[in-house]
Amino acid sequence: MKKITSIFFATVVLLAFQTALAKDKRSAVPSKVLSAKTIFVDNQTNDAELQNDALVGLSRWGRFDVVDSPQKADIVLRLTGSSVVKFVPGGDASATYDPKPANGNAAGGEELAPPGCTRITVIEPKSGNTLWSDVRKTTNGQEKSKILEGLHDAVDQQEKTRNK
Known about the structure:
This protein has helices at 2-27, 31-35, 48-61, 141-144, 149-162; strands at 38-43, 65-66, 75-80, 117-123, 130-137. By secondary structure, it is of the alpha/beta class.
């Protein structure tokens, strides 16, 4: 019985440690994000209100200058939902309608957000590498207005750590 209790305790401690590391890793912001001056918002959802809320949030934050193309941006803020809209040129006979994607990934290989949520991904535009990512619940206007809270908090936390 003592051995089972010890194994159980060790498992709980390891799981708690792993959860803490995962949370720190998710919220860690690379120096490329901290040094960025310009940002482009790439809204891949079907919700224009989300893009507006992201733009308003960036304006209030004042940390980045919003630019009109990814080529002019130091970083890209991509918003993706639980579905992907794919443009198919007219007359393309090979295109087929598939309402359910084969997997939970967008065309760029990014994982889609769960229903009722939005994935916020910060991307380096030149390489396409993901620098930071978060999932936020966005089912109502109040939640949508807080779309950038996770990024804002992660940047603030990283700067406090860096300045110590």
